[in-house]
What does this fold into?
Amino acid sequence: MTVPSKVMDNTKASEAAVALKEAGNKCYKDDDNEGALVAYTKAIEASEELNDEKLLATCLKNRAAVYLKYEDFEHVVSDCTRALELVPNDPKTLYRRCQAHEALNQVDSAYTDAREVHRIDPKNAAIEPVLVRLHKAVALKLNELGQTSNKVKNMFEIVFDITKDKEKREKAADNLIVLARERDGANTLFKDGVLPRIAKLMKVEKNIPIRLSMIRTIGELAKKSQEIARAILQECGVPFFLDVVNSENEEVVNASSYILQCVLNTFSHNDIQIGIEEKKKKGRQMTSAERKWTISEEKRRHELIKLNGKELVSIMNVVTFNIVSRTLTGKARDALIELIMNNCKYDQLNWAELCLKMDTYQRLMEVASEMKDFKHESSMDITDRTRCVVGVCLNVMYDQMWDDGRRLQMGEQIDEFIRLKLQDQDSEAHVRAIVAITTLLKNAPELGSGQIGKDGITQIMLTMAQSDDKVQQIVAAEAIIAACAKKKDTISIVSHGVDILKAMYKSKDDQIKVRALVGLCKLSASAGHDASMRPFADGSTEKLGEACRRILINPGKELDMRRWAAEGLSYLTLDAGVKEKLAEDEAAVKSLIGLAKEGNQEAAYGVVTTFVNLTNSFEKQEINPEMLELAKFAKHHIPQEHELDDQDFVDKRIWTLAEWGITSALVAFYKNDSKNIQELIARVLNAVCKFPELRGFVVQQGGSKALACLALEGTDKGKRHAAQGLARVGITQDPAIAFPGNRSVDIIRPICHLLNAEFDGLENFEALMALGNLATLSESCRSRMIKSSEYINAIEGYTFEDHIMIRRAAIQCWSNLCISPLMVQRCEGKNDKVKYCVLLCADDDDTAIIMAAAGSLAMLTSQSNKICKKIFESIQWTECLLNTLANPDYNIVLRGAVILKNMINSSKEVAEKILETQLMECIQAHIFRAKLDEGSYEPDQNLIKVKAIAEETLKVAHDMKVIRTQEESDAIDDIAIDAIRMD
It folds into this structure.
């Protein structure tokens, strides 16, 4: 009888899974936690494939034990919970989860698990003291909850009585937020009826701090559970939040829109999906277990969205309907549009597609067509950033249309809006159409270029520019500026519009004149950095630059005029001659910096882009030499770089700008809504940080804080430049000053992302140097690097790098991490880390590597007797240690002496093994050399330290009776001689 091949395959797979589990068990017994984690994870994946629930539960339980050693308690709870779902009532699994719950301060859950262990295994003596301890903790918590309930009642009496003292009410309102952040406190508040009380109070409360506290309290409650989130909608209603968000106070607006986002997240688990997306962005290959978890979470999300569909659609309808409300403040309108943008992704709430069935796109275009400076009776209130926000929102929504059909639908709705406006005989409707197109051109280029390419649109713009109406001229000028983004559009406008812009420039109205000037600047710069092409006659660019400069440095000019002048310079500075002239003009540069400090975010593009051009920190396209030769052969135009863009000139400009305070201007804009602006800021700051002498200016002017934020959010390229800037600052500046508080821990993640083999070697080197400095700062920094296997594995990987500088930086970083007990625990495992460190002590290529390796061993052996014994695992341990003790550099000798002292202190067995080598003779030689050196004029301080350590080492060895003094040796010899004579 033949056994089916499928059965044989399953048997082999089952044996392989069991073998992986056994390998994990062996690693765990040998204290090789890293090996155990890898083996158990593979065993889990294998058992999932086999659908072997019993084996899967065992492997999960065992992996939880490893996570306990790493103090990764969240993973312990997760693994144990999964194991108990498969094999309920397993006492070991329950006990491990109990330990994790207790460590996470979840004493009620820990007590429940402990009681279950005692019920299943009443003879288990280990659980009894745990039960006693947890019983006391639970009783204490119940007592605290009772006190919390009393506090809540007292706070209610103060907060909700408008006749009480103002300061007491504000303090009590703040305390409500603190309570709402804790799960138990939130449940108490909810049960005691805080929601209807807040809804009632908000109708009459005028005190802004109290209103803000009430809003934030609801926001915290909304995150806790679906029950509370649903109650918030029932008690308050979505219109309540629109009333609350309708404020001129930015804090109130942000807090109110945050509540709606929290409710949406609770109803859809949107926050979990965002977390999944973050994991995917890291580019790390997910394990089978992680993939299955992701699939199950996404399935659960879809079920939850379906269950709460009515509430989710209701919120969406109210938000999208009210974005054109004439009673809404500009800040509230911005907040609602941002809420739409945050929930439009197709793999989240998919509002972008759902809005196709409504008139949302028409409403968004209505906002996009609004003008801030020219009002009429039916105008909406908008801010300086509203058009930018709505344009970015439309761009994001367009990106979420995953097929041509949906994109076509969205395009048709936008076409319909523009068509209806242009069909209207009223000139105001035409103006609004062109304003809307300008908004799209600036913020949603693909949608905007689709409109500008339609027949008659460019002609309408040029006709409006020639009219006598001021509003039409201004709108047309802005549209022409925005339309010059693509070369084909620029050529058309250069041929038809230059004369019109020149005529507008002669206008007596400054608003028209400055926009015409910027239009001319943009057309003049249409050749970009190509020094061989110039659309205008020679000297025209310099004249335009001088015109922009006069407006910029004139303090009497309005802010809006100076902003436009900065934008004009942002185009003109593509020309190297204008760059060089501007970089020598202190008044103009300081005017740009002053413009930034005034905080108008609309000036960000002009100011930041000008600085990008001056520092040449824009993205440069690498030219393949073969393609260049091919282009020459085909007689294609070859762009030429100006001689003033040579690196020496660029470096000089960066130095000048940094000394004049360019960093302070960039810091003023780093919170800009545009990810592209953030990337440009990161590029310029990174260019400044290239020079060690300028990094102090960056830190003093707040650049390190800006870089820390830019490294965590924005475009991938922007985050990379910001991370490199952080690394550069971290190399030469004191990390405690440059990155105070928790910032030093937060920046580790972005800097570690530079440890990528695909990145430039300089980025790898600078990241390792910075991490080495951060490792000396605190145990928090060290544990962040060590606890993440991704980070520590990357650092260790570079210790084998061929490039000597990168290798040295990695070894020095690793050495600084050896202060941490976590690194000691890592090295104690079954691996070759100590062996490799010993071998590095004999590295003849680099003294710095020997010093770092010897320092690592000195720190590790001082903390672990086990590592002292592991040194013998290297066959060449004697020669390697001799290389440290016989080194001409006494810094290295000192480290070698410490290693020897630690080893002899560890045990008599180790000391006796050392005595068999020449190491003790080497130590004695250093004592003799130090005594000779003591009589010199300037004795070597390191040698004096070596002598002290050597003498202490010899004393310990003597006390162990491993070595003897000369007198003791002579006495023993005499006894031996007398014994021979007697024989």
Observations:
- The chain has 57 helices and no strands.
